[in-house]
Specification:
This protein is of the alpha/beta class. It folds into two domains: 218 residues, 3-Layer(aba) Sandwich (Rossmann fold), CATH 3.40.50.1100; 115 residues, 3-Layer(aba) Sandwich (Rossmann fold). It is built from eleven helices and ten strands. The chain starts with a helix and ends in a 29-residue tail after the last strand.
Amino acid sequence: MSNCLAAAYPLLAERLQKTVLAELPTPVSTAHFESTAGLRTISIKHDDVSSAHYGGNKVRKLEYILQRARERGARRIATFGSAGSNHALATAMLATASGYECTCLLSHQPRTANIARTLNMHRLIGTELVPYGGRVDPLATFRRYLQGRCCWVIPLGGSSWLGAVGFVNAGLELAAQVAAGQLTAPARIYIANGTMGSSVGLALGLALADMPTVLHAVRVVDDRFASIARFERLLQKTAMMLRRLDPSIPDNIAERTRLCWRDEFFAGGYALADDTTKAAVRLANGQMGLQLETTYTGKAMSALLHDMAAPDYAGEHFLFWNTYNSRPLPVTTERPPSPGNIPIDFMRYFE
């Protein structure tokens, strides 16, 4: 079923519409691999193929966010991210395909392998790319690029209560796949935890489904963007808004969530990678057939591999939630013949 949340809570579905962008449910699979402690088996939730155009976790959020933008009469979608932001690219691709113009306000970041391809994709689809952060005057930037343009502004990572609802549905979707015998109910789920919308929504969805699974949210951004206190605020707000829209949702749903906050795989900073992260990406590629990266999913995989090799591992079943797009993009990493819509200062990522 593509919308398990609507099936479980029809009043909520009536009051909170979505634009269908994702191909749901996303598949699950089983992977076997050799760890330092012997042969291990995990399940994988493949949100990497959540859309035919561009996969990853952002698609679920954008279904609700772009619907709200349409209801409010927006003609342009604007959002924030870093130069290689998957969120910014997913927003630009899906907004453009849905008939919107799109502005992405992007900041600089440490260089990673995916940035050049991401910028070339923005160039291909005509995203308005605006330098942001550092010494850029935010107020002047907002006035120039957002004011008077019928913009719907999406927060960093698409993480708001509205975006989190997409992952409430994801938790119920996984429970339905467990009930259908497609996988064993996991004792733990490991997910990359950036701006927290995916983790908040998934925690609530698992609680609504009465699954005893513990969500291991592996922090991959600075603590000014992701912290336990911020997580709790977004969790409580999302639960409150769901209850306001549909009183049949349990009033203690936030208290029923099961979360394990993981800080120890941050690897020194956003978009930085240590040897453990790189080794996790190599193992996932070589033994599981997964194309991960070192900024987000590689760190979540590091946590899972660490825990499965620990002396106290007792054979529990774990699941890895793959949030990284695996759909091929029709561009290369080569430096374009001219910048086009890419800010001149961002051409450094092609060097």
